Amino acid sequence: MPNSPLISVRDLSKNFRSAHRREGLWGGIVNLFHREYRTVEAVSKISFEIEPGEMVGYIGPNGAGKSTTIKMLTGILVPSSGEMVSNGFVPWRERTAYVRTIGVVFGQRTQLWWDIAVIESLKLLRRIYDVSQRDFDERIETFDQILGLRDYLNTPVRKLSLGERMRCDLAAALLHNPPLLFLDEPTIGLDVVAKDHIRHFLRAINQRYRTTVLLTTHDLDDIEELCRRIMIIDHGRLLYDGPLALLKQKLLRTKQVKFALRDKEQLPQLAAIEREGLKLERVDELTWRISFDRTRVSTADLIRQILGTVEIRDLLIEDEPIEELIKRIYAGEALHEVNI
Amino acid sequence: MKLRDIGIIYRKEMKDTLRDRRALISMIVVPILLMPLLTIGIGVLSAEIVGRAMEEIPKVMILGGADSPNITAELRAQSDMLVVPAGSDYAQQIEDKRIRAAVEIPPDFDASLAAGTPSTVTVYDYEGDLKSGIAADRLQKFFGDLRDRTVRDHLAAQRLPDALIHPFEIREQNVVSREKVTGAMVGGIVPYFVILLCLTGAIYPAIDLTAGEKERGTMETILSSPVSRTDLVFGKFLTVLTASLATAFLAVLSMAVSFGIGKGLLMSLTDAGQGNDFTLTINPGSVAAVFAMVLPLAVLFSAALLAIALCAKSYKEAQSYLQPLTIIVVVPGIVSLLPGVDLNARLALIPILNTSLVSKEILMGTYHWHYIALIFISSCVYAAAALTVAVRLFEREDVLFRT
After folding, report:
1. How much is the pLDDT for B377?
2. Reported pTM
3. Which of B4, B12, B225 to mutate to test the interface with A (most CBs of A within 10 A)?
4. ipTM summary value
5. How far is A145 from chain B (nearest CA, A)?
């Protein structure tokens, strides 16, 4: 089926019933006998499609509905309404057949057994997923090349560092060579080097096997380094689904120019740069920063103006950090400002 | 349902359980240590306490008797008691355990003995107190002997034969086998412990495989594997059942060993006359039959514990749900130990109680086949119901992912 999406989700919703708890000691006693339930819409009518070979970042604040979506996509939860076809299966209806075609990694949990050597867990998963011994050996070899597994295959999981464990979990999730990989916060709690390893590995398997990856994360560097497309969810609703570049282009309005003056004698001339639409801030005595709206002020004009007014030693042009942008989106400011 | 998947889950969970220290303690250490402690420990301790109490020479008080010097002199001469000066606060002294007993000799006792007129000797003691009881027994024995001697003297004086006191002897003869005697003595206790340990051995694995898994966050990973939820429940259930039966089996084994050792020890500690009579015989066949009866009960426990623990969010919550169960199981166990509670058709339908009662009968060598069948079938029905509930709960999202 060329050109057909690998995952197709239409109007997917998931409601939870949660008990409303009264406060205080008396409230606690009342709770024991009479409970009030509220229906919480964890995911509300989301629709999207993912093409084979894509790497999609799925982001949102805590409790936005990311994990609930992943759990529905992996067949653990049954949606309240809506349709979903993934890899040719309806996940919750044909779960056991479907999960043989996917890999799942939950960043904060492991599917490896705590007390036994990693290789033992992998051997067990080989049996569960019916992987032949030859394929198994071959894949372990491949994972070893990219991830460097050999050194700790015989170590119990509890003795591994978080980064090492995550590599093993990735190997476990990909043992049966699934075309589709779901990652729930794969880099959470990892140090910079470990994060880099994981990202390198994900890029490699995406390129080598055309594995489709959907990953949730709080780390926007994951998105910037891995994903061309992002989906933003909040309060169960999909706020944005599109290229990361487009989001930046449309929403990153503020730019910053940071420059260092040659000497103190330049200070009096600074006032001449100030005009409407610019914000001049002092970083230290000789370093200053100008923030401006790039839709109203041309970066080239501004730089020309700075160079013509004061003598400088150094100059740096920066975008608004992506975190700031995402914060604005979560706060509900950004997306309706432009028409996406 | 795929046996292969159940087998994989079972092996995984067994390996996990065998590495859980709490499960190991309740499954292996408790039954192995508890039984010798209960049989040998308590036996040795009580023999020791009784022995010590017997060795003590109790202080007794003679009230009255000033006009009966013969008797008081004879009492003072007894080597197994020590007569202390009389006081009007004898009751208080007995209560305070300063003296063990007191005896009140009626006025003109020596004279009435000689004359053959009836009179009453009163022994004061602290009922229920071991040492006071020993002192009172010695006083009673002294006066009993005195009474016999007096009668014999009167008979001799009238030239009548001694045999008149005992015109005939009374003899008690046991007609049932040693096995039945043992069954009646300890038959209730054995199944009671087996049943209780079936439960306690299953508690920790049941919590670990459900609420523990939720707490560690590994529930999602196992649910996203291509093992069906039913197979998952069966794999987990079999693990809990194994722990339950292993606990019970080890308990029985350890009990058999400690009875063997305990018997010898008790015989060497208690006096020989009693020791000869003290032979406990448990037929291995009966023990196997008890096990067969306990099996559906262990299934019931395992499935019920799994279902209840699954509803909890955390290890701690599951523990607070399951601890009261121990008490619920103890009650029918104790009822079955009460004298006079015998198996009937209605009791045969009450879970736990029915198994306790029938196990008691089996250990006594009595096989009421219709009750055995009824109990086995009803226990199987309860077990199947509990297992069905556990499977159903594993299908429910609000139970698996309770927040």
Report:
1. 92
2. 0.76
3. B225
4. 0.75
5. 26
